[in-house]
Amino acid sequence: MSARFPRELLCANDNMNCYRWATLMVVDRKTMNPADLESLPACQANESREHKKGSVTAPDFVPVDSASPALQHLGGWVKNASKAGALEDCTLIVPTYKRPREMAGLLRLLATFSDVPREVIVVDGSPSSEVEDELLPWAEKSSLPFDLVFIRSPAGLTRQRNVGIDASSREFVFFLDDDSVPQPGYFQAIRQVFLTDHAKEIGAVRGLFANMADAKLTWLWRVRFALRLVPRGDPGKYFTCGTSATWNGVAPFGGVKPVDVLTGCAMAFRREVFARHRFSLFFSGYSQGEDLEMSRRVARDWKLVVCGEARVRHETAEGGRPAGFRRARMALRNHYFIWKRHVPAISFVDRVRFWLNVALIIIYNIVGSFVRGFRPQYLSYAAGTLCALVECLFVPPAYEEPPARREYEFNLR
Fold it and tell me: What is the pTM for the complete model shown?
């Protein structure tokens, strides 16, 4: 029989340095009765104590009892903080996939911060245990200012973020990529934006890229501007032609500025946002544009801003990314989907701009494949874009967003 206890009570009864196996129960919308699904309380904590004693590795997928046939368990572990100093009302969620070195480097950096979130949740979608094998020995011997939660999850960026949302418990929810490098003061600066917003109009805050100020415009962006395929506008602006303004060359600034688009590698939300919005499962696997789509939905109810004092570097890692063809196909399909969903009345001029921009991407990559020697990855990207173009014209992507609801249950054993 399962015991039910609040998460905070369970944590209080554990020793500070002990490890506990954590599980997640995944709600299957396809097989579960809709009436039963709606009846699930958002704060339900179903604590199952049935597990093999002395087991070192909890199974990733274990069916629960017959009373809940649609639920599954996801394994993981937790190490509690052993010293004070973290931001008690903040959670950091980091989805990762086959990047043990980057993930370990980020955690080591966070352990040195005085303003780190109290709860750091790593959601690993890797097919092997390489990330866990890197993190667990380090966690065992480290004195951490935050609770470190490690969860094994089905792969998929948006799915992993949603897992982290349901596993978290704090008021302000931060997201970083495993190859993001926040600077000291990053978390406190964003937290302060939320705290000083007494009217609670700001629902999400993004960080400012510290390594983009000196970045020059690529030839692709220069041609876009020269042909007027993309309007010139403030960084973070989303245009009705389906593109958003680049952050390349934006000088550092102080304070906050309104934006239309968040960035998945450095953003934070009020927890109240997730009562109505979750990351869309239209975006499967490694995703492009999922942060843009979430931004446009959240902006219907909340203000979005960028905080100039919250500096972060995005050291783009190549590991865990799909090849050129697949990535290009995904990029165009996703951005076409977002454009059609969030620009209700598309003008003729915007349609021309969108498709000419697609043609420019194909030409740019074909030319790039033969410049400075043959580079097949560029040719592959052009082919992927062309494939997606045909799909968008004849079999356009579509997805009906289900109502936001809790899909996962986090259980500490």
Answer: 0.81
